[in-house]
Write a structure and sequence with these properties.
Layout: E1 2-3, E2 6-7, H1 16-25, E3 29-33, H2 37-41, E4 49-50, E5 66-71, H3 75-86, E6 92-97
Parallel strand pairs: 3-4, 3-5, 5-6
Antiparallel strand pairs: 1-2
Length: 107
């Protein structure tokens, strides 16, 4: 991206694992895994809540919480974040795909 003859630098997005580490120390963060139940059972972030994208309208989490949403690659979590915003949630972060983790959550 160029503006006024100068290059604009963009901050690099934190890694999936960095988001997980942040969630370990912030009790206001809730991890939402939007993969299907079978995928969730193959490995997930500790203390995450499994709400498949197809059931996201049934979420029962306080709107004051910080939601960290993930899936396998980041595509479903992106869609879930859009739905959650429409439902009145404000502090939503798409942390991407668990497949990008270096921690070996998937079995």
């Amino acid at each position: 991206y160029i503006t006024g003859g100068k290059f604009m630098l963009f901050k690099k997005k934190p890694s999936f694992d960095a988001y997980v580490e942040q969630g370990k120390v912030d009790p206001n963060i809730v991890f939402i895994d939007v993969r299907e139940k079978e995928e969730y059972l193959q490995g997930h972030v500790n203390k995450s809540i499994n709400i498949p994208l197809s059931n996201i309208q049934n979420i029962k989490i306080e709107k004051s919480k910080s939601l960290y949403v993930y899936c396998l690659s980041g595509a479903r979590s992106k869609m879930a974040c859009m739905y959650l915003k429409q439902m009145g949630y404000h502090d939503i972060t798409n942390i991407g795909g668990i497949a990008k983790s270096k921690k070996g959550y998937l079995q």
